[in-house]
Specification:
Length: about 60
């Protein structure tokens, strides 16, 4: 998050500031990376719904 908000990343520097709104746990890196790939295919409406779900560690 610090790198994104400091403007060091050319892909994210135009959309400042970044705020962490969702975190979920995975048992291993492979599962987490598969989930990340799935996220990259989703629309904004899905994320708005996801932020309020019980799987969001930040909501606990």
């Amino acid at each position: 998050m610090e790198e994104h908000n400091s403007g060091l990343s050319k892909y994210t520097s135009t959309k400042l500031p970044w705020v962490l709104r969702y975190v979920e746990a995975h048992d291993d890196k492979t599962t987490a990376l598969k989930r990340e790939l799935m996220f990259k295919k989703q629309k904004r409406k899905y994320f708005e719904w996801l932020f309020d779900q019980p799987s969001n560690i930040l909501k606990k």
